[in-house]
């Protein structure tokens, strides 16, 4: 079933029809594209199940869970957010942050360290993509004084929108997202890969569909889907 549900939709999920099982998955915004294919592949392989994916920034997902939002599986874009959720998580994929360029490369960037005069967008400090962007700006690009105040966004999707609409010259997003959008990008040296951990919530631990989806994520079919969308796989073989 193709859908990209917003967080609010999770509150509206009702019980499925007789014999049907459903699981609600809170997933980091950067998983939006691959999430749809994961959802469809799992439902095809498991007739009678329905996966509802709800996307938002990792920090926002954790806040919603803490506030009692109904979810069975949580997938964040870094281990810090997963730890903040208090859940027992394990990696299902990894990715890389890149500097995506607006169409035509208006700032003429050829080296991501030379971003001083560019109009930039990056995620807020509490968001995984924001933490990684600052790792780059305070490391390999240290000494570059930004002439313009960067546009701070709540999720990688918002940063990507700024880049694709030309509102900024460049933005820090994940390689998988840049590829999906057909954006030219520059790789970043000195920035660690971001790990995507998944965890069952207390509600998900009692949900057979959620348990099956959680274990399926590290199996060969799901890992091949992650890889095809530009993520690095972690294996696991379950």
TrEMBL record:
Alphabetized UniProt keyword annotations: Metal-binding, Molybdenum, Signal
GO biological process: molybdate ion transport
UniProt xrefs under InterPro entries: ModA, ModA/WtpA
MF-aspect GO terms: metal ion binding; molybdate ion binding
Domain of life: Bacteria
Residues of the signal peptide: 1-18
Sites where the protein binds molybdate: 30, 58, 156, 174
Pfam families: SBP_bac_11 (PF13531)
Family according to the record: Belongs to the bacterial solute-binding protein ModA family.
Protein name: Molybdate-binding periplasmic protein
Gene designation per UniProt: modA
């Amino acid at each position: 079933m193709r859908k990209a549900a917003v967080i609010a939709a999770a509150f509206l999920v009702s019980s499925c029809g007789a014999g049907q099982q459903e699981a609600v998955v809170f997933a980091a915004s950067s998983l939006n594209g691959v999430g749809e294919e994961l959802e469809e592949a799992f439902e095809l392989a498991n007739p009678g199940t329905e996966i509802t994916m709800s996307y938002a920034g990792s920090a926002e997902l954790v806040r919603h869970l803490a506030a009692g939002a109904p979810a069975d599986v949580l997938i964040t874009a870094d281990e810090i957010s997963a730890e903040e959720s208090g859940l027992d998580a394990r990696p299902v994929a990894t990715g890389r942050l890149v500097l995506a360029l607006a169409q035509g490369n208006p700032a003429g960037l050829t080296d991501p360290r030379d971003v001083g005069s560019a109009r930039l967008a990056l995620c807020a400090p509490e968001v995984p993509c924001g933490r990684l962007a600052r790792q780059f700006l305070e490391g390999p690009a240290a000494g570059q004084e930004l002439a313009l105040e960067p546009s701070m966004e709540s999720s990688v999707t918002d940063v990507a929108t700024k880049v694709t609409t030309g509102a900024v010259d460049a933005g820090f997003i994940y390689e998988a997202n840049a590829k999906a959008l057909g954006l030219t990008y520059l790789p970043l040296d000195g920035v660690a890969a971001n790990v995507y951990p998944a965890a069952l919530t207390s509600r998900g631990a009692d949900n057979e569909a959620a348990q099956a989806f959680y274990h399926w994520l590290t199996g060969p079919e799901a890992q091949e889907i992650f890889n095809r969308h530009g993520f690095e796989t972690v294996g696991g073989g379950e």
